[in-house]
Specification:
Strand 1 and strand 2 form a beta hairpin. The chain is elongated, with a radius of gyration of 15 Å. It has one helix at 34-37, and strands at residues 2-4, 13-20, 44-49, 62-64. The chain is mainly beta. The chain is built from 1 helix and 4 strands; from the N terminus they run E-E-H-E-E.
């Protein structure tokens, strides 16, 4: 995956998905349609290749394919 953070503009990191939670962390009250399923949130753990340790723990990042 590609990893970017507003805290480090212009830098991009690569990473690999290590795990995806089996159950949703956030579930709307009613999940009845395909659109509602888009609101489900699952925890994902990504191991980021960052040999310089530029990213700090707790940094918000955007992850894409």
């Amino acid at each position: 995956v590609n990893v970017r953070s507003d805290a480090l503009p212009g830098r991009a990191f690569t990473g690999a998905v290590e795990s995806i939670d089996d159950s949703a962390q956030f579930t709307p009250r009613d999940v009845q349609t395909a659109e509602d399923r888009g609101d489900l949130v699952f925890g994902v753990k990504v191991r980021v290749h960052d040999p310089d340790r530029a990213l700090r723990g707790g940094t918000t990042v955007a992850v894409g394919w």
